[in-house]
Amino acid sequence: MIVTHAYRFALDPTAGQVGALLRHAGAGRVAFNWGLARVKANLSQREAERWCPLSWCTGSVAGSARASARGALPRVRTAP
């Protein structure tokens, strides 16, 4: 299939719309960075478990404690 037509659009937002567009882009960037941090934390945890010579250090409890101590995982509050 060959495309023979192309269209170019330009935005001309008002001042209020500019602010909304910037907030939307900023929120998207925050979400992307959050997801990237989760992926990196999972990969580093997997790498740490792969190279651990002890059988007990590959468990999820020990691995989570090590990652949490490094600050790689967010701390979750429990209800009292």
Characteristic terms for this protein:
2 helices; elongated; 0% strand; mainly alpha; single chain; 80 residues
Percent strand:
under 5%
Shape: elongated
Query: What does the average pLDDT come to?
Result: 77
Number of strands: 0
Order of helices and strands: HH
Low-pLDDT stretches = none
Whole-angstrom Rg: 22 Å
Helix content: 55-70%
Distance between the termini: 62 Å
Structural class: mainly alpha
Largest sheet: none
Tally of separate helices: 2
Explain what you see.
This protein has 80 residues and is mainly alpha-helical. 59% of the residues lie in helices and 0% in strands. It has two helices and no strands. The chain starts with 14 loop residues before the first helix and ends in a 10-residue tail after the last helix.
Structure described in brief:
59% of the residues lie in helices and 0% in strands.
Question: What's the layout of helices and strands?
Answer:
Elements: H1 15-50, H2 60-70
